[in-house]
Known about the structure:
By secondary structure, the chain is of the alpha/beta class. It has two domains: 5-175 and 218-241, Rossmann fold, CATH 3.40.50; 178-215 and 244-278 and 294-307, UDP-galactose 4-epimerase, domain 1 (Alpha-Beta Complex). 42% of the residues lie in helices and 17% in strands. The chain has eleven helices and 13 strands. The protein has helices spanning 14-25, 41-48, 63-70, 84-89, 91-111, 145-164, 189-199, 219-231, 249-260, 283-289, 297-307, and strands at residues 5-9, 29-34, 53-57, 75-78, 116-122, 168-173, 175-177, 205-207, 213-214, 216-218, 237-241, 247-248, 267-269. Strands 3-2-1-4-5-6-11 form a seven-stranded parallel beta sheet, sandwiched between helices. The radius of gyration is 19 Å and the shape is globular. The relative contact order is 0.13. This is NAD-dependent epimerase/dehydratase family protein. InterPro entries: Epimerase_deHydtase (IPR001509), NAD(P)-bd_dom_sf (IPR036291).
Amino acid sequence: MSVPTVFFSGGAGFIASHTIPILLERGYRVRIFDSMLRGDRDRVDEFCATGQVDLVEGDVRYGGAVQHAMRGCTHAIHFATVSINKSIADPYESVDINVIGNHNVFAAAADHGVKRLVFASSASVYGDPQKLPMHEDDVLQPLTPYCISKRMGEDLLGFYQRTKGLSWMALRFFNVYGPGQKTEAYYTSVINTFLRRIRSGEPPVIDGRGDQSMDFVHVTDIARAVVAALESERDNLPVNVGTGVDTSIAQLAKILIAAVGASMEPQFNPRDVLVSRRAADITRAREVLGWEPTVPVEKGMADLVRASA
């Protein structure tokens, strides 16, 4: 019997580096498809040295390259994307990679009859939520080209499910963090800014009252959810992957001060701030994936502080 093989676009990235070891443990081969413009080549080389992983350097915007690389794969994970902050600065590139790229991967997966495709969607498809916690059936109001492309990706998956029987899961990731994340990443910039100040003996500065919040979910929990979605009996659903806990920026500052072992209070910069809050309803993840988050934000942040010391 042939070994199950996962086509993994964006497989040289941050979340992939935590997901691939679980796939290998579970007996999959992995074919990383990545442009390597931002990929971690050293980590990919380590994976390839196992003999269970190979790298195809390519761009998801080229449908023929995707079709060719998908050949012989039984499963697919699609992570290749342009980040949320870059999508506002350059909507053209965002639409090119995120929309055309999504379509090329989904079409190839449908053509090759893969058993399951897992798509990295995003909590940003909700826009500014009307209520917390955010549920998969809530109204979607994506605000940027990145967020719009994620919602469009989910709709395209539905199209290939209806026309070609593609089996898929779309994971709406909340605020992913953890070791190995690039320092300029959208969600980690606030963590890094606070840490730099605390370590230099200066209090973190918070705009407004620090009420704005995120649902910080650790990358090891995200990786487990990806593999669970690849293997779940249920399919063709979007699923929130978060912790259900909204951590305010003021709380985050205090968690990081404690993790560093400093003695200070955050400073507040009084000004009007658009308060956005995030917290996932993770009932569906529990029921459909059998998944629970295992890393509380205090422990995850403390580990991150130690790793970056």
